[in-house]
Specification:
By secondary structure, this protein is α/β, with parallel strands linked by helices. The protein folds into 2 domains: 5-245, P-loop containing nucleotide triphosphate hydrolases (Rossmann fold), CATH 3.40.50.300; 251-314, no CATH class. 36% of the residues lie in helices and 28% in strands. The protein contains 11 helices and 13 strands. It has a 6-stranded mixed sheet with strand order 5-6-7-3-8-9, with helices on both faces. Strands 11-12-10-13 form a 4-stranded antiparallel sheet, covered by helices on one side. α9 crosses α11. The model has no long low-confidence stretch (mean pLDDT 90). The site of adenosine-5'-triphosphate has 12 residues, from β1, β2 and α2. Residues 14, 16, 38, 40, 58, 60-66 line the site of adenosine-5'-triphosphate. InterPro entries: AAA+_ATPase, ABC_transporter-like_ATP-bd, ABC_transporter_ATP-binding, P-loop_NTPase. GO terms for molecular function: ATP binding; ATP hydrolysis activity. This is ABC transporter ATP-binding protein. Keywords: Antibiotic resistance, ATP-binding, Nucleotide-binding, Transport.
Length: 331
């Protein structure tokens, strides 16, 4: 089965009633409720290839969770269409459930009063996973996530980091090709975060799973994603690789090099400006919209000049994203 995700013009509008202020207002609202439309997701189109990890990013309230809820079949779109591993999720919820795993960092999908091990056994029965397969997969997850030290603990007594690791294992026990992760590492300490990221990398690289991830943690994006889709106010603002996004919105890198011979003549390179020179110390920066990424620039400088040292400064991803949002607001 091919675990790709196709999203075409996906739209979800919520209608809510607003309460007018004061007692008279409340009475009026009761008799004649005022309905307002909230366009949580508006005409979003993107693809995730099988075996790709895509980060779906955006500020609070941008529409990320609403998008994931439509792709997991929890919500039906107002218009537009989506397919996950070939299935329309909100039309065939059960078929979709077999193809996907989902983790919502803020709440558990496990049975609160049961020990973890029993929750896993229930899931094995629900998804009809053969006993030997189930045991082998649990061993693999235990190795990567260290579950055995708390697998006899009731879910309600797990720490946040332990609980999310169990949720991740539970979501993948039936071996789904597609995984949705809504802020999976929120509130975790750095050690557990890194363990979860390593686990996700393994699931994508070794198991070929397709992952759609939402997070506010840019370190996580840099460590895990090659491509990101950015949404703001329900609309898709940007779809590209991290390199493309840096090039478009983060044109503030510098390459600082120390020349082996301080008398070497130095000039600009394609898309790269010479910003400053002080004896053997030279500083390059991006020149115009066709400037290369900092990594490509570094390569060009090293190939062109004999240097004894180099250092790079680049805009951190938080700044890059902030610029991207700000430019989207201005349109
Ligand atoms: N059931 C609902 N009824 C009315 N409005 C809703 C409902 N669910 C979401 N919204 C609104 O839709 C918008 C998008 O919400 P959503 O939860 O998808 O954002 P998000 O990008 O996941 O945000 P966050 O990063 O804070 O989790 C918000 O303005 C939210 O208030």
């Amino acid at each position: 089965m091919i675990g790709n995700i196709e999203v075409r013009g996906l739209t979800r509008t919520f209608h809510t009633t607003v309460r007018r202020p004061g007692f008279a207002g409340a009475l009026r609202s009761l008799v004649n409720p005022e309905r307002v439309a909230k366009h949580a997701v508006s005409d979003i189109t993107f693809d995730v290839a099988a075996g790709e990890l895509l980060a779906l990013l955006g500020p609070n309230g941008a529409g990320k969770s609403t998008t994931i809820k439509m792709l997991t079949g929890i919500l039906t779109p107002t218009s537009g269409e989506a397919r996950v591993a070939g299935v329309v999720p909100y039309r065939e919820r059960e078929r979709n459930a077999r193809n996907i795993g989902a983790v919502f960092g803020q709440r558990t999908q496990l049975w609160w009063d049961l020990p973890v091990r029993e929750s896993f056994a229930i899931l094995r029965d629900i998804y009809d996973v053969p006993e030997a397969e189930h045991a082998a997969r649990l061993r693999e997850f235990d190795e990567l996530l260290g579950l055995s030290s708390f697998s006899d603990t009731r879910v309600r007594h797990l720490s946040l980091g332990q609980r999310v690791r169990c949720d991740l294992a539970a979501a993948l026990l039936h071996d789904p090709p597609v995984v949705f992760l809504d802020e999976p590492t929120i509130g975790m300490d750095v050690v557990v975060k890194e363990q979860v990221r390593e686990f996700l990398r393994h699931q994508v690289a070794e198991r070929g799973r397709t992952v759609l991830l939402t997070t506010h943690d840019m370190t996580e994006v840099e460590r895990l994603a090659e491509r990101v889709v950015l949404v703001n106010h329900g609309r898709l603002v940007l779809d590209g690789t991290l390199d493309e996004i840096r090039r478009t919105f983060g044109s503030t890198w510098q390459v600082r090099a120390t020349l082996a011979d301080p008398h070497t003549p130095v000039g600009p390179l394609p898309g790269i400006a010479l910003i400053r020179r002080d004896g053997p110390q030279v500083v390059f920066g991006p020149d115009g919209p066709a400037a290369p990424t900092v990594h490509q620039a570094l390569k060009q400088v090293i190939e062109r000049y004999e240097v004894t040292g180099v250092a790079v400064d680049e805009a951190d991803l938080e700044d890059v994203m902030r610029t991207a949002y700000a430019q989207a607001e201005a349109v």
